[in-house]
Specification:
Number of helices: 13
Distance between the termini: 20 Å
Order of helices and strands: HHHHHEHEHEHEHEHEHEEHH
Helix content: 40-55%
CATH topology of the largest domain: Rossmann fold
CATH class of the largest domain: Alpha Beta
Strand order of the largest sheet: 3-2-4-1-5-6-7-8
Number of strands: 8
Shape: elongated
Oligomer: single chain
Largest sheet: 8 strands, mixed
Radius of gyration: 21 Å
Structural class: alpha/beta
CATH superfamily of the largest domain: P-loop containing nucleotide triphosphate hydrolases
CATH architecture of the largest domain: 3-Layer(aba) Sandwich
Number of domains: 2
């Protein structure tokens, strides 16, 4: 399947939770206080959160007034456009992928951190990059073994330390090996805990100092993994890790489960950290770069509208091959 098809398939449960509600609220009716109240309830129930929902509705009211919108269908278009604009990463968001890079991946245990690293490694390997993993989450039993399994599946090298070893020393060894093997992207499995922000911050500062000294030519990216099914708790985790580690991006996992999807909107809006990758399935190819247009369409459009997008994309593909 193509990226949009996998996204659409992965978000089926999410769309089942949301799309019907949006269809109901956007049936032809007056744009009045009842309409805004119902829309507010749906957004909050979709894990968008109170603060972000308030901002979205304030923007919607302003545009209804300034653009003299009369129908709820027009409001739906404006709402989707507003969310897409909020979630669009800036043009430098993926610059770290253009050259040598060290990616630090953090997140609490159970959110899919190790799995996401394996899928990320596979994605870059298939794009022709030389990839290495570093098992620097040395405080969790079996973390190294799990990461080794993913390294084998992705067909990439891995550097491991012993349980309880200083994570910075594992990263140091991995940096030396990555440079020796002319590696393009080194992905480090790091902190899997957040019970003490100060210790976490010091640990990551130490790792950053080693990277700056040993591999100054490499871009350094810090990605926080959060579980989309945990709703506002995921937002709290992302905020905590961002305060401790100055995150540059989010990997949101398990959107193929019972996630309501709105948490992706809340994280981007409230923390100003771009969602850069999303997981929409258990397969090794089911992690993809975040596309806000496709995400919002797959979440909020009904089945008939989705089919129209599929048809349009098929026509474009056929036109490219001269078969339409």
């Amino acid at each position: 399947m193509g990226l949009f098809d996998r996204l659409k398939s992965g978000l089926t449960k999410t769309r089942d939770n949301i799309a019907k509600s949006f269809d109901n609220v956007f049936t032809p009716c007056e744009i009045d206080d009842d309409f805004y109240d119902e829309l507010e309830e749906i957004l909050i129930m979709s894990d968008v959160g109170v603060t972000t929902t308030g901002n979205i509705l304030d923007n919607l009211r302003d545009r209804v007034k300034s653009e003299h919108l009369k129908t709820t269908d027009e409001c739906r278009r404006v709402l989707m456009d507003t969310i897409k604009e909020q979630m669009t990463p800036d043009e430098t968001a993926y610059d770290f992928e253009k050259g040598r890079a060290v990616i630090l991946v953090i997140g609490v245990n159970g959110v899919g951190k190790t799995t996401s690293i394996g899928k990320l490694a596979s994605m870059y390997k298939k794009e022709g990059r030389r990839v290495m993993l570093a098992a620097a989450d040395t405080f969790r039993a079996a973390a190294g073994e799990q990461l080794t399994e993913w390294a084998n599946r992705a067909g990439v090298d891995i550097i491991k330390g012993s349980e309880g070893q200083d994570p910075a020393s594992v990263v140091f060894d991995a940096l030396r090996s990555a440079k020796a093997k002319n590696t393009d992207i080194l992905i480090c499995d790091t902190a899997g805990r957040l019970h003490n922000k100060k210790n976490l911050m010091e640990e990551l500062k130490k790792i950053h100092r080693i990277i700056d000294k040993e591999y100054p030519e490499a871009a350094c990216e810090t990605l926080v993994v959060i579980d989309g099914t945990t709703g506002q708790n995921a937002l709290m985790q992302a905020r905590g890790f961002h305060e401790a580690a100055d995150a540059t991006g989010i990997i949101m996992t398990k959107l193929d489960g019972t996630a309501k999807g709105g948490i992706a909107i809340a994280v981007q809006s409230e923390l100003k950290i771009p969602v850069k990758f999303i997981g929409v399935g258990e397969g090794i190819d089911d992690l993809q770069r975040f596309d806000p247009d496709a995400f919002v369409d797959a979440m909020f459009l009904n089945d008939d509208e989705i089919k129209d997008i599929d048809t349009d994309e098929a026509e474009v593909d056929d036109a490219d091959t001269g078969e339409i």
